[in-house]
Sequence to fold (560 residues):
Amino acid sequence: MPRALKSPLVLLALMLALVASVPVLSVVSSLLSTGTGEVWRHLIATVLGDYVVNTLVLLLAVGVGVAAIGVGAAWLVTMLDFPGRRLFEWLLVLPLAMPAYVMAYAYTDLLQFTGPVQTLLRDTFGWGRQDYWFPEIRSVGGAAAMFVFVLYPYVYLLARTAFAERSGSVLEVSRSLGFGPWATFFRLSLPLARPAIAGGVALAAMETLADYGTVSYFSVQTFTTGIYRAWLSLGDRLAAAQLACALLSFVLIVLLLERTTRGRASYATVGGRSRPVMPLRLGGWASVLAVLACLLPVTVGFLLPAATLLHLAIEARGDHSIAVYARLAGNSFTLAGVTAVLAVLVATALAYALRLHRSRITLAANRVVGLGYAVPGAVIAVGILIPLATLDNWLDALMRERFGLATGLLFTGTVAALVYAYLVRFLGVAQEAIDAGLGKITRSMDDAARSLGLGAMATLWRVHRPLMWTSLLTAALLVFVDVMKELPATLVIRPFNFDTLATQAYTFASDERLGQAAVASLVIVAVGMLPVMLLTRTMRIRIAPVSPVAAGSQTRPATA
Fold:
């Protein structure tokens, strides 16, 4: 037996990794099952082609859109100086607080035939229904637009960091060789930032694959909507699991493409003194265009939908029940709070086991748990319900046989199952923050604690916990907000007659009661702004090397 397996902490880490991998293993095992021939023939004859085409179109459109907007905005605020640049640095992150399905509700009210935009056009020009053409918001293109303007901050944040960390001397050398700003961007800065851009696009693509609220509300047939249709409408959980497995293959393809785009090139920072990046000052029409270019994604992705939701909420103020929204908020905050605390505890146990006993076993356990964030909520929901339903049926049969008691469903469709799904989905978020915090604590402090007679757990509590308190709080906050916004897994697993702000907003919007949906949506957006503010503050600290503190490295690509 390997020595690491003798540690209780390592055994705990392995057990947690196994529990977290059950949903994915359950979905993959469905490929070995048979008996869904009739359902699959129906799907192939009717909607399976739409699932594949729409999913691919969304991935392509979102990938191109978030790359264009994210990279462009990051270049503007990092490399150019224009009025309001410091303000746009954090304003451009705000769309992250706006869930895509919430944005879909707002723009549907704004752009539909009876909405204010088309009504104004008809009143102004005297047009009738047949006199003009207006793009249909409830379409594949409309869904892609929602995703692009909500998810571009993933690319913006990573690209901005990559641009800011590059040495100013490299850019000065490029200019001394006769390259202008555009040539420097395309031939130097963009290739150096390629891994960061690819990572941001991959994150946006996975969020697109995981979405259910937007595509369902817009009636766009994707694998996510197909999973719910097979499970809830057709009543075939095996077909739903196999569709979930197909969706999981799209996720794996996205991850593989992201890895492939990096190639075999290395993007390293090597020694040498250099100056920090000095933004190029713009004036005249150039500065106006830069301001408009930064203002457009902020307005479309946050300001306009937030104003629309606020207007809808004020208009429907007479339809609001304080008691109802208090109950919904209580459910959401309770689930988010419990999940955040458990996620921090589990992620800390995994990270600390890896720190004390670094081996292939503990490294694999941490990686398996971290992969949950790449798995869509619909896949996790199906992967959890199948084994839990099997367990419930087995326990019920056992209790009937031994004691004549019917236990019914003890785990399926309970709050515990819902929290389990959240943990599998968002544990990787907590891991990232806690790993970063624990990695900043030097090993010498562990040695000093042991020399004073402190054991492993005492060292964690008395030495590490105070030093990584900010990381623990950040991890809890990020998980809290992600749970508040989660919709697909909640819709499938939630107990009967148990709603959250996200599910109630979706229900109201599906019933075309956008005024009531706006109130719940505004609460979700308000809570989502907390990590956005924290993220912006962290970004300012991380990009501090743009100041003279870290003007001491030269960056170049080194091909293998």
Summary: Residues 446 and 459 are 7 Å apart (CA to CA).
